[in-house]
Design goal:
The structure is a single chain. It is built from 15 helices and 15 strands. The longest helix has 15 residues. The protein has 387 residues and is of the alpha/beta class. 40% of the residues lie in helices and 18% in strands. It has 2 domains: 202 residues, Rossmann fold (3-Layer(aba) Sandwich), CATH 3.40.50; 163 residues, P-loop containing nucleotide triphosphate hydrolases (Rossmann fold, 3-Layer(aba) Sandwich), CATH 3.40.50. The chain is globular. The strands form 2 sheets. The chain has an 8-stranded mixed sheet with strand order 10-11-9-12-13-8-14-15, sandwiched between helices. Strands 3-4-2-5-6-1-7 form a 7-stranded parallel sheet, with helices on both faces. The N and C termini lie far apart (46 Å).
Length: 387
């Protein structure tokens, strides 16, 4: 079923505590994915929801989860799995907002790179909701520091990315240990073969909803391509930064090595830039992300996987230093800008013919218009005139 419109939250029969949390956020009308997900999940139905990033998925599954929690019961009653620690932390923040007026509802976030002892201490407080990366939850189960035999609801967020990242065995092992669950929610930007396999094995009579990136929830993003030789890419980045006078910019690279190189060379040119990728220690990554979120860091350079779950909704511009390898990566990258009904801007640097063909394919797949531009003598970006 395709869902194109939201509904008023007060029409969904939610508790006064949840309504109070929504009012505090200033939310009166749901997004389409929330309108399509909340009723079936409230009825304990299995759900597969295909929806673009940035459409309010956490509240779509978070509201039914919090509504179903029995605060008197100290067992883990819901598990939300996320592919990266950043996304797990982001979901935790939003779940705290949803549950803030529900007394006795406790939650914990479990992810790798954080001392396990600290997490064990939190687990002793008997949280009913666990938000976790699959690997770290598996670790806790092996150590018997958490039990999941009374879990009623399981949600896989960014299911496609989680399974792409090689977590399929962890995920299936975890689902096999949650035999008493009443419903399973799969939330995904794309429904990959692996997501379909999980749905087929672990869901029964699931409701299926699709939210298209239509004009209503498709961000307003001006997209440009800039042809530059490989050795001129950094100069082009510097020109874009000064041309747009942007305060907060994300630069995406395809490799860890490139993120290091680009951020280092920008620092040498006096630009306040930092990078994150999978090999950077978790503590440092969190520090860099916090600086960027708080508006204290101008340029943030990242790989696609490292940037998953970083939910900063007012990035002025996105620069694709490398053309992404996957069509979906492009959508996720540029979706960092143009949120909250603001106009965004994305630049993609193209330095050879294969990259040009890739970008052309991406534009066709994503149904986006990418305008070729160049710098004139005054340093202004102008549209390339067709010969």
């Amino acid at each position: 079923m395709e869902v194109t419109q939201g509904v008023r939250f007060d029409s969904l029969g939610l508790s006064p505590e949840i309504m109070r949390a929504l009012e505090k956020k200033g939310y009166e009308v749901s997004t389409p994915v929330q309108a399509g997900s909340i009723p079936p999940m409230m009825e304990w139905k299995d759900l597969t929801a295909k929806a673009p990033t940035g459409t309010g998925k956490t509240f779509a599954f978070g509201i039914p989860i919090v509504e179903h929690i029995d605060p008197e019961n100290n067992a883990v009653q819901a598990v939300i799995l996320a592919p990266t620690r950043e996304l797990a932390m982001q979901i935790t923040t939003e779940m705290r907002e949803i549950s803030q007026f529900k007394e006795g509802v406790r939650l914990v976030c479990l992810y790798g790179g954080q001392p396990i002892g600290k997490q064990i201490e939190t687990l002793k407080k008997k949280p009913q909701i666990v938000i976790a990366t699959p690997g770290r939850l598996s670790d806790h189960l092996k150590r018997r520091t958490v039990r999941v035999d009374q879990v009623q609801t399981v949600v896989l967020d960014e299911a496609d990315r989680m399974l792409d990242m090689g977590f399929i065995h962890d995920v299936t092992r975890l689902l096999d240990q949650m035999k008493n669950r009443k419903n399973l929610g799969l939330f995904s930007a794309t429904i990959s073969r692996e997501v379909m396999d999980i749905a087929w094995v672990y869901q029964r009579d699931a409701e299926e909803i699709t939210v298209r990136a239509d004009e209503e929830n498709k961000p307003d993003i001006h997209q440009f391509q800039l042809e530059v030789p490989m050795n001129e890419k950094l100069n082009a980045v510097e020109k874009i930064l000064s041309y747009g006078n942007y305060d907060r910019v994300m630069i995406f690279c395809n490799t860890k090595g490139n993120t290091e190189r680009v951020s280092h060379l920008l620092q040498l040119r006096g630009v306040d830039a930092q990078c994150i990728h999978g090999d950077i220690p978790q503590q440092k990554r969190e520090k860099v992300m916090a600086r960027f979120r708080n508006g204290e860091l101008r340029v943030f350079v990242a790989t696609d996987v490292a940037a998953r779950g970083i939910d900063v909704d007012d990035v002025d511009a996105v620069i694709n230093y490398d053309v992404p390898d996957e069509n979906e990566y492009y959508v996720h990258r540029i979706g960092r800008t143009g949120r909250a009904k603001r106009r965004g801007v994305a630049y993609t640097l193209v330095s050879d013919y294969p990259a040009m063909i890739r970008l052309r394919d991406i534009a066709k797949f994503t149904k986006n218009t990418v305008t070729p531009v160049q710098f004139d003598e005054a340093g202004q970006l102008v549209e390339v005139q067709k010969a």
